[in-house]
Amino acid sequence: MQARFFNKLTLRTVLSAITVLAGASLAQAQTPAEFYKGKQIQLMCYSGAGSTYDTYARLLGRHIGRFIPGSPNIVVQNMLGAGGLKLVDYLNRISPKDGTVFGGVSRGNPFDPIMGKRDIDFDPLKLTWIGSMNREVAVALSWGPSPVKTFADILKTDLLVPGTGAGADSEIIPRAYNNLAGTKFKIVSGYRDTAEATLQLETGELQGIAYWSWSAMASLKPNWMTEKKVNILFHTGMADMPELPGTPSIRALVKDETDRKALEFLLAREVMGRPFVAPPSIPADRAKALREAFNATMKDPEFLKDAARGNVEVNLVTAEEVEALLRDASALPPAVIERARQVLDRN
After folding, report:
1. What gap in Å lies between CA 197 and CA 252, rounded to an integer?
2. Which of 30, 77, 208, 322 has its CA 20 to 30 Å from the CA of residue 193?
3. What CA–CA distance (Å, rounded) separates 228 from 338?
């Protein structure tokens, strides 16, 4: 009797497994258009509603569905935590790996494992990169009344700036500035995102922002420059910025060669200014469909008009360019990576 029961149980288990495998095989046999038709895609964003990353994600979400085969519905969702690492972990370990989920992560996240950070368990080169909506240049700024008005001033006087998480650019890069260029940024942690922090800057709780994308500032606070509300201390570009004549690049202000290379490694993330990524191991044809849809969206006149209305800067970086950037970063001399790690480990 017992043997008969286990035989039946085994048979049911085998039949269930066959059903699951058959369903999986059927899904794999579908074309992207057949698979995505009638589906809903989750487009995740690591930062809060109203932030610049969120603005980019929602702009993308309004248009990319037209270019994905099968025209699936796109739903944007926010997943905050650990400066973007919570979303990366979700995409890497938990989310479906069928092409129905992808997300906008912090541009600094894929560089964390390259630096050997503890408690970070993902390989950026195994994730499915979709592309980036922009290349970035960032600025450091002080609020108008602050005694810090130039790069020379920030070498002598402390400036209170916001931090949005231990793994976020808003904390990583100012620490690098302090240790490689001698600046005196004092990071106040605990802000949801830089957009929230700007409110506290205007009320006097903060004195500046050490690392904020130029495109984000232009989008969220276009009056800051026209009304001369802020002082731009320096920028991170590799060349002069016509919009900021006479403003120095931080790259030229770090004199030691190893230190400069370490800073350039940390700033390499700016090439992938607003990156989007899917989980590892999604079917190759769906990854290709998502990448092609992303590229087509970035060139679409209707999308570009929508971006212009929101004062959102768009400059396509393809998935292949993102992957090449990460491969190059992974292949840097260990001494450069170690130097970057050392300066970030210091308080």
Report:
1. 28
2. 322
3. 40
